[in-house]
Amino acid sequence: MLSVNNLKKSYGRLEVLKAIDFKVEEGKVFGFLGRNGAGKSTTMNIVSGLIDHNGGNVKIYGKELKDNKKDLMQYIGYLPENPVFYEYMSAEQYLKFIGNLSSYPTQKVKSRTNELLELVKLTDARNRKIGGFSRGMRQRLGLAVALYNHPKLLILDEPTSALDPEGRLEMVEMIENAKHEDMTVFLSSHILSDVERVCDEVSILHEGKILLNSSLEELQKSHLQPIFDIELEGDVQTAKKELEKMSWSTKVESQKNGISVYVSDFDLAKDALLKELVKTPVTITSYKIRKKTLEDIFIGMVSKNGDL
Ligand SMILES: Nc1ncnc2c1ncn2[C@@H]1O[C@H](COP(=O)(O)OP(=O)(O)OP(=O)(O)O)[C@@H](O)[C@H]1O
User: Fold this and answer.
1) What torsion do the CA atoms of 86, 87, 89, 91 make, to the nearest 10 degrees?
2) What is the ipTM of this complex?
3) Distance, CA 45 to ligand 1 centroid (Å)?
4) What SS3 class is residue 30?
5) Which of 127, 138, 224, 252 has the fewest other C-beta atoms within 10 Å?
6) Can you give the pLDDT of all 308 residues of the chain as single tens digits?
7) Nearest-10 Cα torsion for 247, 250, 253, 259
8) pTM for the full model?
């Protein structure tokens, strides 16, 4: 649906995107992760046709965006990080204004506006001025604007940041619904628990370069294996050496009173680990399974490649 190849963007001498590549498959939710300033909004502004790039290409449905902007824009709905509205209008007036801009017939404007107010839970606030809206209400209204023309590709820039836990949950549920309505979602976020909940694919952008492109399923298999934290008394180094020989162990870290065992096959390790440990000259005093999260992977990757 969306493919980005060798994309470059600079502001003066600042190289923001240094030849990035990624693909967003139709019907998937794609999470674009990165710290503040990584270049996520810049990428989203380019993909939404709002700003130009300096090199590479962006294709939607196989067509080059910059040569087919008018045609391709009809497929895109965009919720920017800080949506801007006419503050003196009410939510209803604003959505009707959007409908009129799209040259919908009056009856259609009315019904689509009502439908969207309901969807984003603003029906009760429909007559209130946007200027008095909370951050969460503004995000929801922005989502309604992005959805107005039934986009095929919904682009959401940090849709859950700055929302309270309840607002985040509501937004995540709306994103899940968009997926069920056959929309493709391209979202950026640094709230990794939300990404883990809703995304099928993830990409990590760091200092203008892509560090990782993967399906969440693959990531879970390859990187999200739990870690065994075991406290021991006795000869920790011998226990470490013995466990390092096991086919299922990928890394063993030793501490003063214990070890952490990283594994490639959780089920195999769970069965074998304690059996192997009791053969070594140690006494086990505690045994814990620590679940690795997307956040652990993200921090691991960006700190290896940056200045964390
Ligand atoms: N119009 C602009 N002119 C000059 N520099 C810009 C402009 N827009 C963005 N930048 C710079 O480009 C870099 C990337 O910004 P961008 O907003 O794309 O990052 P981001 O990953 O979306 O971060 P955030 O989550 O903080 O929005 C930053 O260093 C930013 O200061």
Assistant:
1) 100
2) 0.95
3) 10
4) strand
5) 127
6) 899 999 999 999 999 999 999 999 999 999 999 888 889 999 999 999 999 999 999 999 999 998 898 889 889 999 998 889 999 999 999 999 999 988 788 899 999 999 999 989 899 999 999 999 988 889 899 999 999 999 999 999 998 877 888 888 888 888 888 878 889 999 998 888 888 888 999 999 988 999 889 898 887 776 667 789 999 999 999 999 999 999 988 889 898 889 999 887 888 998 999 999 999 999 999 998 887 777 777 777 776 565 44
7) -50
8) 0.80
